[in-house]
Amino acid sequence: xxxxDQARDRAHDIVQRAKAxxxxxxxxxxxxxxxxxxxxxxxxxxxxxxxxxEDLGLRVFVGQRSASVSTxxxxxxxxxxxxxxxxAMAREAPEDPWAGLAPADRLLHGxxxxxxxxDGGEVSPExxxxxxxxxxxxxxxxxxxxxxxxxxxxxxxxxxxxATSHGFAGAYAATGYGVSASVLAGEGSAMQRDYAxxxxxLRAHLESPAxxxxxxxxxxxxxxxxxxxxxxxxxxxxxxRVGGSLVGHMLGAISGQAITRKTSFLLDSLxxxxxxxxxxxxxxxxxxHGLRSRPFDGEGLPVSPSExxxxxxxxxxxxxxxxxxxxxxxxxxxAARGIGGGPGVSTSNVFMEPGxxxxxxxxADIESGVYVTELMGGGANGVTGDYSRGAAGFRIENGEITxxxxxxxxxxxxKDMFLAMTPANDLEFRYGVNVPTLRVEGMTVASx
Length: 448
Description:
By secondary structure, the chain is an alpha+beta fold. The protein has two domains: 4-221, PmbA/TldD superfamily (PmbA/TldD fold, 2-Layer Sandwich), CATH 3.30.2290.10; 226-448, no CATH class. The chain has helices at residues 4-20, 76-92, 125-140, 209-222, 240-253, 256-260, 321-327, 359-362, 414-419; strands spanning 25-41, 44-62, 65-71, 145-164, 169-185, 192-200, 232-238, 281-283, 306-310, 313-314, 335-336, 344-345, 350-352, 368-380, 386-397, 400-413, 421-423, 433-434, 438-447. It has a six-stranded antiparallel β-sheet. A five-stranded mixed barrel has the order 7-14-15-16-19. Strand 4 and strand 5 form a beta hairpin. The chain starts with a helix and ends with a strand.
């Protein structure tokens, strides 16, 4: 695999070729990835997979016309053909008044932040196998667990580089590790499944395989013999592993593309109260070792920690350069780039700040409610905010989490849900979007 410096030079070289071939402007992305994963089932090795890839994407501009091409053939002849094809395609493309590179005066210059995303470690298939076995063994050892869908462990390392024709060239490397277990409890048609996993940039930061396995087994057993709910209004409490999806609906609604197309349920909400008072949601691309940390965005702009929601108020849209131009605003450093096509929008490490009460206090006054631990299907309508999800979880009775329930739907409108939301104080950083346990009043439950 190329080093970050070599990857940066590769991207810079193809941009220079594009300029020499007649492009007015260009940018290029180079991405390389190597991954190894091992899966175990019932104590036996089931599969070992290894993948390696190197890809390059080029975007060229001829006036306000643009075209994007990509390839995994990095030979000199292929690069020459790629450049010629891209420039020829751009000359025939329709004009886009918002097209173009990021503002030159906004580009990141100097040393990129050191975020600790790459431990440089080499992991053997045997080490991954042992971690997967340990996770599955711990899950199967939980009384009541009757079968296994398997344990898994993975390791990867990637290098990502971006170069533009107007002065930016940067690259960075990142590693990623994961361990998981998925098991079943009970017998026959009454079986219940659950899972647990841990992901980290650095292998040393992974949760122990045994702890992951125990959690998967205990969660599966806890779901045995679920009952049914009575349809009607209910207070819903979202477990941390599913509550982040609510923030995800908000992030989609404030992306530049949703706003410019006028397809967002938050279209007229900038600067207004969107969440309950006291709720703050931040985006921190500089979080050390963060799963979504990055030193610059997909257009070469600097990134920095920012508030998306401050005391319930919507503070910003998420904008790449094209959507910012269309809205008459500045890009926010949220551009994301794949190998093909132009930039889109993506956040980094998004989290909701914790509230002030523990879970026990959050639910203490709920006479009858639902603690949701799994969501299925459905989602939120991006235009109206109407929300409906299949769910499973546990009853809340007289302030206590009690028996399991399944086969029900929870519904509402996310605009109302945001305003009726209360966070607990139990925030943990496990995912790309992290939230504490969330209580939402005034929702509707429909039993299946």
